[in-house]
Amino acid sequence: MTEVGPMSQPIVYFKPGCPFGIRLRTALTLHGVSHRSVRFRDDEVGAARVREVNDGNEVSPTVLVEDRWLTNPGWREVRDAGSNAERGIEPGAPWTEGP
């Protein structure tokens, strides 16, 4: 089973050859966003959860950040979801200037 704890790396679920998955994983790597890539067929429990959050479809890429699922996100969305989770900011909260 896929266990995700506080401050864990985003997990990118993808299908081999999917151009959207390739683009996202490449962008995350180029921009220094730490992540873990998992093929659907290598994690049946994770793939089942992906299908659950995407109306029965294995949408590639689908990313798990903390306890939040992102379907076909851009690299900035993955980066921001991770940094917001680490700072305890709820998704969709208004942006405020830090100290």
From TrEMBL:
Residues 12-68 form the Glutaredoxin domain. Coiled coil: none annotated. It comes from the Bacteria. InterPro entries: Glutaredoxin, Thioredoxin-like_sf. Residues 80-99 are annotated as: Disordered. It holds the Pfam family Glutaredoxin. This is NrdH-redoxin. The lineage of its organism: Bacteria, Bacillati, Actinomycetota, Actinomycetes, Propionibacteriales.
